[in-house]
Design brief:
The complex is a heterodimer of chains A (113) and B (115). Chain A is built from no helices and eleven strands. Chain A is mainly β. By secondary structure, chain B is an all-beta fold. Chain B contains no helices and eleven strands. In chain B, the strands form two sheets. In chain B, strands 2, 4, 5, 9, 10 and 11 form a six-stranded mixed β-sheet that branches. Chain B is globular and about 40 Å long. The chains are: A mainly beta (113), B mainly beta (115). The interface between A and B is medium-sized, with 32 and 26 residues.
């Protein structure tokens, strides 16, 4: 079955530690995205990538980093510089430029204490 | 930047009632998307709209792309308990800085259906 997988579903970290969230897709999509969701709020774009080895900052990129070495994978690192990292993180993908339907993974809930 | 206003913020309805929610934008969009998110899960695409005035149905769901291209509506008929969730609108503009399929999302409408 084609889809997007995110792992793990729940992640706990101590303050000051970097943590990497996994996102993999087998939909052959060119574009991938990372969003952050806080309770009662919509989705805010962290980073996106239109093609392998290229990515762009979204609206709230500070304290986060990404890489796109393979078409299928777009990992997100939450660094210790992110002031309020506890949130629900969603990865999405789309066919790419000009294709607007984004398909989401199941999300990772990160708790930092 | 682009802003989307989604309303209402929440709805509490009885099973069997119809539901209506909408999104308005400060700028023109060329695409409107409607998603449903269940607790602890990622949003699932319900309906995609690509043309001003377009009216599209998906089962009991009907969405419309406003003529002004600055708004969209989602209606759910004869609600059932499994309709519970958060409904998000998302819009995209041809005139965004990059054409990467970036979407602007509304803050969501939380729907509660009482049996």
């Amino acid at each position: 079955d084609g889809g997007i997988t995110q792992s793990p579903k729940y992640l706990f970290r101590k303050e000051g530690q970097n943590v990497t969230l996994s996102c993999e897709q087998n939909l052959n999509h060119d574009a991938m995205y990372w969003y952050r969701q806080d309770p009662g709020q919509g989705l805010r774009l962290i980073y996106y990538s239109q093609i392998v080895n290229d990515f762009q900052k979204g609206d709230i990129a500070e304290g986060y980093s990404v890489s796109r070495e393979k078409k299928e994978s777009f990992p997100l690192t939450v660094t210790s510089a992110q002031k309020n990292p506890t949130a629900f993180y969603l990865c999405a993908s789309s066919y790419g430029t000009g294709f607007y339907e984004q398909y989401f993974g199941p999300g990772t809930r990160l708790t930092v204490t | 930047g682009q802003q989307l206003n989604q309303s209402p913020q929440s709805m509490f309805i009885q099973e069997g009632e119809d539901v209506s929610m909408n999104c308005t934008s400060s700028s023109i969009f060329n695409t409107w998307l409607w998603y449903k998110q269940e607790p602890g899960e990622g949003p699932v695409l319900l309906i995609a709209l690509y043309k001003a005035g377009e009216l599209t149905s998906n089962g009991r769901l009907t969405a419309q792309f406003g003529i002004t291209r600055k708004d969209s509506f989602l209606n759910i008929s004869a609600s059932i308990p499994s309709d519970v969730g958060i409904y998000f609108c998302a819009g995209q503009s041809l005139y965004s800085n990059t054409n990467a399929g970036k979407s602007t999302f509304g803050d969501g409408t939380t729907l509660t259906v009482k049996p």
